[in-house]
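Consider a concrete sample entry:
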Amino acid sequence: MAVPRHHMAKGKQLRRRSHLALKPLKLSECTQCKKKILPHLVCKYCGYYKGKEVVNVLARELKKKEKKQKAGK
């Protein structure tokens, strides 16, 4: 079993852990719907990426509703 060779001071330990803090997300604005999204990803609200529609959000929602109705029967 591994055993620490030397005692580590609290200051050294805290300096090592200084980079483990959570950092705030860097959000960008969707060019289409102006909502905050992560950069380089398709907007989950409108389905646009770089000014082009990549995902049809309305069709996706209809598909989910149909699936729930089938599961409910």
Summary: The mean pLDDT is 91. Helices lie at 10-16, 57-72.
